[in-house]
């Protein structure tokens, strides 16, 4: 079988990644938000032993790869992957698997990251037709474990705290844990500096009197981030956006990218060429952002 560049590209788009070793491929399996059942994991292990060399690797986007699969076995592996309820994770100019942290169960998590990732995966993966790849990342809090700022569009969980002065004893514990130095104790009460607050919720979590409460929660929105040889930190365009608004913001961003992007141009470059303010006007207009 002759493997020309077009065929190799088509295979890569379908989740078969050519290795530098002749005739061998890595099989990339999509795992939504990094969640896979114990039974599926056992089956993947069996596939690695049957078709590969008995091991798997994990990708930065929380997928699984089985390396060392001979090209004559690619279709067989694909069929077996699908039989266990999983699917291939392709490359190319389309929506890539969505990265999300464990904010749903993490003590620091401020939003249901796993549920959100599943919802967005159902709605948008693997939408094609972009000038280049389109990546999304979700972090449950400002710790940013999944680095949403380095995705084409990223979301970071946030919570705005509010103090019940009648319950505050001025103990200072909230001020001690506030890494942003946004809280101080004045006249026996905790005082929050709105300009310094990063909406991490640490004050709410540690207050022994439950004086700090959630006023509202949402997400920070970042656009235009990317890894690679020319990496960029995404633009921070909004704070405390309602989680329910996320799909609409993604859809508007995708439409902007498809309408304005040039072939092989990442979203960051499209925004810079067209103008950040023009992008914000098109995407955030009529949305609730801070």
TrEMBL record:
InterPro entries cross-referenced by the UniProt entry: 4Fe4S_Fe-S-bd, 4Fe4S_Fe_S_CS, NiRdtase/SiRdtase_haem-b_fer, Nit/Sulf_reduc_fer-like_dom_sf, NO2/SO3_Rdtase_4Fe4S_dom, NO2/SO3_Rdtase_4Fe4S_prot, NO2/SO3_Rdtase_4Fe4S_sf, NO2/SO3_Rdtase_FeS/sirohaem_BS
Keywords, alphabetical: 4Fe-4S, Heme, Iron, Iron-sulfur, Metal-binding, Oxidoreductase
Domain of life: Bacteria
Segments forming domain 4Fe-4S ferredoxin-type: 159-188, 190-217
This protein's record includes keyword Kinase: no
SUPFAM superfamilies, per database record: 4Fe-4S ferredoxins (SSF54862), Nitrite and sulphite reductase 4Fe-4S domain-like (SSF56014), Nitrite/Sulfite reductase N-terminal domain-like (SSF55124)
Family: Belongs to the nitrite and sulfite reductase 4Fe-4S domain family.
Protein name according to UniProt: Dissimilatory sulfite reductase (Desulfoviridin) alpha/beta subunit
Source organism of the structure: Thermoanaerobacterium butyriciformans
